[in-house]
Amino acid sequence: MKEKIAQAKLLLEALPYIKKYANQIFVIKYGGSAQINPDLKNRFAQDVILLHLVGIKPVIVHGGGKKINDLLDKLQINSEFVDGMRVTSEEVMEVVEMVLCGNINKEITNLLNMHGSKAIGITGKDGNFMTATPKDNGKYGLVGEINMIDNRVIENLLEEKFIPVIAPIASGNEINHPGFNINADLAASKIAASLGARKVIFLTDIVGVLDKDKNLLSTLTKEQIESYKADGTIHGGMIPKVDACLEAVNAGVEKAHIIDGRVEHSLLLEIFTSDGIGTVIRN
Amino acid sequence: MKEKIAQAKLLLEALPYIKKYANQIFVIKYGGSAQINPDLKNRFAQDVILLHLVGIKPVIVHGGGKKINDLLDKLQINSEFVDGMRVTSEEVMEVVEMVLCGNINKEITNLLNMHGSKAIGITGKDGNFMTATPKDNGKYGLVGEINMIDNRVIENLLEEKFIPVIAPIASGNEINHPGFNINADLAASKIAASLGARKVIFLTDIVGVLDKDKNLLSTLTKEQIESYKADGTIHGGMIPKVDACLEAVNAGVEKAHIIDGRVEHSLLLEIFTSDGIGTVIRN
Amino acid sequence: MKEKIAQAKLLLEALPYIKKYANQIFVIKYGGSAQINPDLKNRFAQDVILLHLVGIKPVIVHGGGKKINDLLDKLQINSEFVDGMRVTSEEVMEVVEMVLCGNINKEITNLLNMHGSKAIGITGKDGNFMTATPKDNGKYGLVGEINMIDNRVIENLLEEKFIPVIAPIASGNEINHPGFNINADLAASKIAASLGARKVIFLTDIVGVLDKDKNLLSTLTKEQIESYKADGTIHGGMIPKVDACLEAVNAGVEKAHIIDGRVEHSLLLEIFTSDGIGTVIRN
Amino acid sequence: MKEKIAQAKLLLEALPYIKKYANQIFVIKYGGSAQINPDLKNRFAQDVILLHLVGIKPVIVHGGGKKINDLLDKLQINSEFVDGMRVTSEEVMEVVEMVLCGNINKEITNLLNMHGSKAIGITGKDGNFMTATPKDNGKYGLVGEINMIDNRVIENLLEEKFIPVIAPIASGNEINHPGFNINADLAASKIAASLGARKVIFLTDIVGVLDKDKNLLSTLTKEQIESYKADGTIHGGMIPKVDACLEAVNAGVEKAHIIDGRVEHSLLLEIFTSDGIGTVIRN
Amino acid sequence: MKEKIAQAKLLLEALPYIKKYANQIFVIKYGGSAQINPDLKNRFAQDVILLHLVGIKPVIVHGGGKKINDLLDKLQINSEFVDGMRVTSEEVMEVVEMVLCGNINKEITNLLNMHGSKAIGITGKDGNFMTATPKDNGKYGLVGEINMIDNRVIENLLEEKFIPVIAPIASGNEINHPGFNINADLAASKIAASLGARKVIFLTDIVGVLDKDKNLLSTLTKEQIESYKADGTIHGGMIPKVDACLEAVNAGVEKAHIIDGRVEHSLLLEIFTSDGIGTVIRN
Amino acid sequence: MKEKIAQAKLLLEALPYIKKYANQIFVIKYGGSAQINPDLKNRFAQDVILLHLVGIKPVIVHGGGKKINDLLDKLQINSEFVDGMRVTSEEVMEVVEMVLCGNINKEITNLLNMHGSKAIGITGKDGNFMTATPKDNGKYGLVGEINMIDNRVIENLLEEKFIPVIAPIASGNEINHPGFNINADLAASKIAASLGARKVIFLTDIVGVLDKDKNLLSTLTKEQIESYKADGTIHGGMIPKVDACLEAVNAGVEKAHIIDGRVEHSLLLEIFTSDGIGTVIRN
After folding, report:
1. B277: left (phi > 0), else alpha (psi -120 to 50), else beta?
2. What is the count of structural domains for chain E?
């Protein structure tokens, strides 16, 4: 019996968070191991559905990762590289879209539905809700920068109690345009800002932002980020991640979280426990 | 970290129940120690608010107990007794109403509000929503039997996201009528039946229904109750409790629960864990 | 026939008032003889229901008066007095609440319902809609000053076509706080101001405000009140009454009325006849 | 003061009727002196508006009477007569429509609006809401019998709080058809039946139905009507009037009233006093 | 088959206009031959219904023309003339109203209904939606100038998917006032401005505004109109027409069209083809 | 001008159809040349948008055709064949889904959006709205038969004025299930039946159903189909097409159309002209 009571108490620890976040939009960037490991996938789905049931409105944005490269390889499509980034040709774009939207997006949608939600998968081409222009004057081909998000499509889905699952492809806003390949982190931040989300949460394969002694930095302000970037504490692949966070926070999202998707139920831990598990960036 | 993950898992154990009970009405008869012990009171309030936040619609029905006798004593009001039951004279009724509605009801309402809900206290006289006639031809004075429940008052409150807290007093449906004193257990069952509630739950000071060896009977059917009554397993004060359960179950409420309000968070344990802690009666 | 036609004409005299007051909120402070005399009680109920049927939204605020003292005496609770006012101890407060909310409020609610309306009785603790802080730093114990009114609870009731009947007790906005005892006249004025009421009407046991020759002053402006107070025309128990009126009028209520509740149907006379029967205070 | 109180009491006598008739449709056939005498016209308008304000939904149906004949005379249009009834030729029909719809209907509409309502005048051609076929195979030309009433047009007006004022002209349901001339009494009865009205009231220039000794028959049943027709008590012009009443009552209208429009405020007297002033026919 | 395909292509030419005008109000002044010639009448009705079906909200305003004079003549009513304009006496006004509202308005309403719409005919007296004061201090009798339009009556009809057909008579806003005779062109412009219409379209018996060489002027700006008036290009009966257009355009209506109602389907041609057929005036 | 008038007349020929089909659902199976030829694609988009603008609710179901085989070939995925049908292995299914949902569906969605509609692309996995079981006990692998359609997802989209574009993939209703490949014609018929569509229209690369002399059969009844199948008139690839039509018609869809998508604007021709261009099958 004691054990059971302890269990009920844990349930109640979530109470203040449930109250605080009722009817708030959380944009969750889903990626990394949590998107690959079967066990983590199921836990992610459970977490999202719990959020949904207690009144939070989750919006999922996912990336594509290795599967895109696999199919490009199988099809022997070679790519040019500029600044270490793959240039998205029309041929590449077709593969990107097939994998992102025709494979991964549907897999996530189905995963959530099979755990009991009503998820609907969309891309920027659906309802033409997200459009883009070429990044850096087209230096990277069809890699795009979002220039418009029409909230109504997502808001309609949220009103009908659906969980939107978004593949980061933007419409080119022209007939026969193949669309644009959008960085998933930036898509998540832009969508969060446009929807007036309370949080944007990045599920990654790292513990969070670390200081020079490899200790987790639990919270970061804009100023601290500047200083950590300057002294090299934040460097390499962490820079774009942190920049995506800043993008959202600067546009009015209250908090951006970088959390470790390799930890089981990391979403619930971050949202429903007092100290969380990753790094929180606020303005 | 492991401990935290265990915590998240516990949270998720509640998931199937949260899904199942979304938008369902639970009528909770609140009484006994859980209504007196300050610590249990706060836990009860937390439990009710958690139910509310995850989408359940709780309706609280409470009794009066010792406080009524205390005030009758202080006021030196003597009562006649018939069949061991106090006859409710007009003088007694006035005290019953003042204590139930002017003291206990407001205390519970305030308790729930202070934990963050929006509770509203009512009696059958509000909106004339519950009327009665004298029980057994008035043998017990103003002790009444419910003859009409107008769901609209409670339904209006539920629609507006209020938690109704009901004192078991019925309107006499006449000008200047002092009203009727209703047994709280029966009021809870009748209200549950009238509202089409999913559950009626009795918070008591007993473990549940016990067999002859003092072991808990986790589930009981109508037939088992008959047989246990016949052989004396169910006897004494347990008989009216079990009859109130049957009243509800026979009128279409899926399950009636008798649980131990002395156990912390007994409401959550009963509702959100697989085997519960008390006795469940179903048809 | 002639008599009947005269009757029809009288009915039509009310027409311009009915038009003018459609959908307007009238807060009515109910007290004095009209709350005690059985005949006047029924006439009051008829009047309120007629107002309701012709499209006015009545909100009733009542006091407690003699019944509180009676119960305090019976329970031999002694009170300290400061400035001639009874200090409300916790013990006194419990009695105040039981009488106001558990006795008088339910009696009025039932009275209105038995005449055909749907009235619901509430106090500031219901939905925590009215909170207070101690008056004059607690000099008078739990006598409070309203610091917040949340209109939504009353507005919800009005939308559902209920007549709210309000006992002037405010929530202390803390767990286990016994609440505050509020002067009923001031509660009526504050509630009228908060709801944007068209009128606040005080049913009293006086003819209205009188001049030095005991003639009724039919209308009073703010300036006249100042001058009558200065020269002693308005004095004694009339001062707080007039101040409650000013409170409402200064906060935007169009008119405050002090009328003689001892006159049968005084409410209808004041509202539906051209010259009314009491004193009107306007800004 | 006493006089005023008597006035308030008279107001309250209307209370049970106001309750009973809230949201009910009353179809009123307006005609006779009440439509001609300037003083009676204004009183009629006041009465209708009072009904409207206390929650009744009045629908006015009017006839044309003398004005049609006047214009036919001025235009020297001669008519054939069959069975003593004027045959409605196309030429006559044009005059009927101009007078009914372009003169009388607008006059009544304006009268009601000037007394403070929002009345809208329509004929069966508006929204094609009332269609007819020739009466007795066209024996009387364009005199028609209603064969369809589409309630939606009137119901839309009632929902928007308008008072519909209906000229008894029906659409011929064909392009270029001049429409049909409908007996106003029958139109009122048919419309009342179609709308599910609570009452149909005929304002006439007679006291009501009289027995052989010229005493008013306050109530009449179907059976009594048969018998009074048989013995000649009901005869002449009273027969079609009574038949129009029966038409409505047989189709489910609770009561049909024949009242004396020459009496001031006869509408209010009939509706809001216990014994009324005319003859009531019920099933 | 080729012919059919050509037909489909023509249908599609309307597409951009249908998109652009969805949910927009078009006020159409109906008059001239299109109101007299049976064939043109039917085509007009078809055109209006097509507009309605593809999502445009047509509002029809009509004049009276020859029929008023005919009836005045038949009734031998003589009129005084001032500045070449007939003075509208009360006697004349009665005829104007009977013809406009009791004859022409109902004919148009019926015409539209017989082609499948739900049209409702009204005048300014209905719902008192349009009031006027005497033009030029009453120099022309009951010829009025609109001083108030209450959009709600028309908007209610539009919401219920009715097509309003308006006779240009204004209420005099007094009991027993015969109303005012309003110039139909000006009524159309004022109504268009008040409703925030997208277009006001005048169906006339001329090709449009012509230059000195009798060539059609397809578009006109305010400045061009001034200059053409100055040099006499626009003169005579064209001046008030053009002024009515300016009235609407200056009040915010995007475009005013003068088109040739003698051309079959001129409404469709003007609205759904790229260059239209008449003269467009824009700000 | 004459030409223009002819054009307007053509526009009006569509009038009765527009009236008849307002608010009706049309399910359109999009395939064949109309899905490949750039010119026909644009015309198809225009046609669909015109339908939408005049009040019809189009639902598009598409197939995949050659593109699936192309990608299977490029990826050198070999398939087993049973009864001449390719068995859908998991490997094949992944390609089918990527092409149908990640390529073709988005292309059509974008095409419609670029012509001015708001289209949203979905598959049975979105909102889990269409589930299937293996056809013929899995003889063909993941080729499925629809066993459930949840209309709410499509109905929500239609309510929000979106055009749903559906890829014929069904959910397997299990975690990690790759889904089922559904015959697009049957999906269209089943969806039409489930939604209560007025029409299902198949865009094909044939003229329609032909008789033995290669003349078009404009209409076909169930009985005629039986007899034409029996005598071999309907044979080969036409049989499943006709069976899909019967499936819809037997389930209550009023008409099923087989039309020639190679003809420009064939959709408009079939819907808005009196004799259509293909074969209609009705019950």
Report:
1. alpha
2. 1
Burial D36-74 (b: 16+ CB within 10 A, else e): eeeebbbbbbbbbbbbbbbebbbbbbbbbbebbeebbee
Q: Do the domain assignments include residue E15?
A: no
Q: Mutual orientation of helices B238-250 and B222-230 as an angle, nearest 10°?
A: 160
Q: Which pair of tokens denotes residue B271?
A: 């509702």
- A110/F177 Cβ within 8 A: yes
Q: Spell out the residues 6+ positions from residue A205 whose beta carbon is closer than 8 angstroms to its own.
A: A32, A33, A260, A261, A262
Does residue F210 contact residue F217 with C-beta atoms inside 8 Å? Answer: yes
| Nearest of B166, B243, B245 to residue B201 by alpha carbon | B245
| Residue D14 within any structural domain of the chain | no
Share of chain C above pLDDT 90, in %: 84
Indicate the SS3 state at residue F174.
coil
Cα distance between residue C272 and residue C15, in whole Å: 8
Q: Is position C2 within any domain? A: no
Considering the domain boundaries, does residue D18 fall inside one?
Answer: no
- Name residues 4-43 of chain F within 8 A of A (Cβ): 38, 42
Nearest to E1 among F53, F263, F268 (CB): F263
Q: How many CB pairs under 8 A join A and B?
A: 91
Residues of E in contact with F40 (CB under 8 A): none
The whole-angstrom distance between residue E17's C-alpha and the CA centroid of its chain comes to 21
Q: Closest to B101 (Cβ–Cβ): which among C42, C106, C162?
A: C106
pLDDT digits (tens, 9 = 90+) for F128-142: 999 999 999 999 999
Separation in Å, CA of B56 to nearest CA in chain C = 18
Does the beta-carbon distance from E15 to F272 stay under 8 Å? no
A118 near F127, Cβ under 8 Å?
yes
- pLDDT in 10s for each residue of chain E, 283 residues: 677 777 778 778 888 899 999 999 999 999 999 999 999 999 999 999 999 999 999 999 999 878 999 999 999 998 888 987 889 999 999 999 999 999 999 999 999 999 999 999 999 999 999 999 999 999 999 999 999 999 999 999 999 999 999 999 999 999 999 999 999 999 999 999 999 999 999 999 999 999 999 999 999 999 999 999 999 999 988 999 999 999 999 999 999 999 999 999 999 989 988 778 899 999 8
CB burial of D215-240 (b: ≥16 within 10 Å; e: otherwise) equals: eebeebeeeebeebeeeebbeeebee
What are the residues whose beta carbons fall under 8 Å from the beta carbon of E159, sequence distance 6 or more? none
Distance from CA of D67 to the nearest CA of E (A): 12
Q: What is the CATH number of the domain that holds C219?
A: 3.40.1160.10
Amino acid residing at C249: V
Q: Are A50 and B9 within 8 A, CB to CB? A: no
Nearest residue, CB atoms, C125 vs list B97, B110, B175: B110
The two beta strands, E180-181 and A85-86, are unpaired
Q: Looking at residue B195, what is its pLDDT?
A: 98
Q: Are E243 and E174 in contact (CB under 8 A)?
A: no
Containing domain of residue F142, as a range?
A: 23-282
What is the DSSP code (8-state) at residue D87?
Answer: P
With H, G, I as helix, E, B as strand and everything else as coil, classify residue C159: helix
Put simply, the answer to whether F8 touches E55 (Cβ < 8 Å) is: no
Please name the helix (run of DSSP H) or strand (run of DSSP E) that holds residue C87, with its range, or none: none
Instruction: Tell me the residues of chain C between 107 and 166 that have a Cβ less than 8 Å away from chain B.
Output: 109-111, 113-115, 118-123, 125-128, 153, 156, 160, 162
C36-46 exposure pattern, b = at least 16 Cβ within 10 A, e = fewer? eeeebbbbbbb
Point out the residue among A103, A123, A171 whose CB comes nearest to the CB of F98. Answer: A103
- In angstroms, the separation between the Cα of residue A161 and the nearest Cα of chain F is 10
Q: Kindly report the pTM of this predicted structure.
A: 0.88
> Which residue from A98, A119, A162 is facing F98, i.e. has the nearest CB?
A98
